[in-house]
Design goal:
- The structure is a single chain.
- The protein has one domain.
- Helix content is about 75%, strand content about 0%.
- It has five helices and no strands.
Length: about 140
Amino acid sequence: MTRKILLATLGVFILWTILDFVIHGLLLKSAYQDSMQLWRPMSEMKNWLMSVVRLISALVFVTIYARLISPRAMKQALSYGVLFGLGAGISMGYGTYAVQPIPYLMAFSWFLGTLVKAVLAGLLTGMIVKDQPIEVVEEATP
């Protein structure tokens, strides 16, 4: 099971890295430029820390599924991804919007992006971390 958790963690980390680039580096690039007074200058960004945070978050996401979800099947993986995404997305997007002067489009994009990332991570995790099929042992007939 540990091998599957590590493999799924790596997969989710790579998936989230790609999606973060698309969401934040491409789709929201102009929104970040328009609100640059809210962010650190590029020279002060701590990208290494974001990678560590993303890796730990992926490990926690996968471990919750592997240790607490039963049965481990695609339906549960999808449900887990949706629920995780809703909870994290509301907090990320609208929680930040409530206390920081970010544009509404950014708040909505953070919410929706987090939801999409979690759903896809749930599906990927569900494909890798599965319950073992039960072996049927036939009794020998005398």
